[in-house]
Design brief:
Length: 306
């Protein structure tokens, strides 16, 4: 069944379907959302969960049972995704109610649940308290990847301190412990300590002389109405590394998480040679042989602050 041809029910047809009582109405949203508000008589099977089909089978084991699926409303593809899954699983009598909870509520039909009077935003917006958020080092990590013609190496870096100041103009400072640089893909190999020593040497990050790197923002621009799965911030600032300072900018996610904390997540490529890390770069050396190291390093990080 192609969902572009699946039957789409009006709200009146959903009411008639429930009154007839010979099929199953399925709420495809999360169990937590279902507990707060759902159409009376609906069963719950979350389309985002791997066990979605098991949930439907539990209350509609006969695949000829008439099944109507609904979700949040016209702006969400939840019920269409559910119809696809059900059709592929062999269900033969499927319909969707595209208007979902939004249309049901707008028509002032009764809802069931623990919080039927409230309207939960589909993706809660970032909410920053007017305070200084301090880095939680043990929950924060930077992952790096360097590459050459034969592939690449990857590892981690830890941060020693950091903060996001949300009391006035939004700003942040983070201090990276360069001596914490580790390789992870050679775990247990005798080459691992040699590589880590090389990264800390004067060929690369010269950590005996420059044990810390610091990133200080000059501007953080928030996109408050952006999509939840796309970056909601542009971070611009100065990175001081190996005794040199250069500007860097990148998109990032700044999100509320549990216990009043926030997380900052981003991934980017940056040109290490801007900070004097020139080992293996063909911009500075010739006849490198197998010592070639690509100029760009990929990093991704998750920083937790509370």
């Amino acid at each position: 069944m192609d969902t572009q041809f699946v039957e789409r029910l009006t709200i009146q047809e959903v009411v008639a379907f429930l009154e007839k009582g010979d099929g199953v109405l399925v709420d495809t949203l999360t169990p937590e959302h279902y507990a707060e508000r759902h159409i009376p008589g609906a069963q719950n099977a979350c389309v985002y969960e791997m066990v979605f089909l098991d949930g439907v089978v539990a209350f509609a084991p006969d695949k000829g049972t008439p099944v109507v699926v609904y979700g949040a409303g016209l702006k969400s593809q939840d019920c269409m995704a559910a119809a696809d899954k059900l059709a592929r699983a062999g269900y033969t009598d499927i319909a969707v109610f595209p208007g979902g909870l939004d249309e049901w509520r707008a028509a002032r039909h009764v809802l069931e649940g623990a919080a039927v009077g409230s309207v939960e935003p589909p993706h809660p917006a970032l909410a920053l308290e007017p305070k200084v958020y301090a880095l939680v080092p043990e929950e924060s990590v930077i992952r790096w990847t360097g590459r050459n013609n034969n592939g690449g190496r990857s590892g981690t870096l830890m941060l020693s301190s950091g903060e996001v100041d949300a009391t006035d103009d939004l700003g942040a400072t983070f201090v990276i412990d360069m001596k914490s640089i580790k390789n992870t893909d050679l775990e247990g190999d005798e080459l691992q300590p040699a590589l880590e020593a090389h990264l800390q040497s004067d060929d690369f990050f010269f950590t005996t002389l420059f044990p810390k790197a610091t990133f200080t923002t000059t501007k953080i621009k928030l996109v408050l109405d952006g999509e939840a799965t796309r970056p909601n911030a542009m971070m611009q600032g100065n990175l001081a590394l190996r005794g040199m300072e250069s500007e860097i900018a990148f998109p990032a996610h700044i999100r509320n998480i549990e216990d009043g904390k926030i997380a900052i997540l981003a991934d980017l490529d940056f040109d290490r040679t801007q900070w004097g890390v020139i080992y293996g770069s063909s911009r500075f050396f010739q006849h490198l042989g197998y010592h070639v190291v690509y100029d760009f390093i990929s990093i991704d990080f998750r920083l937790v602050l509370g």
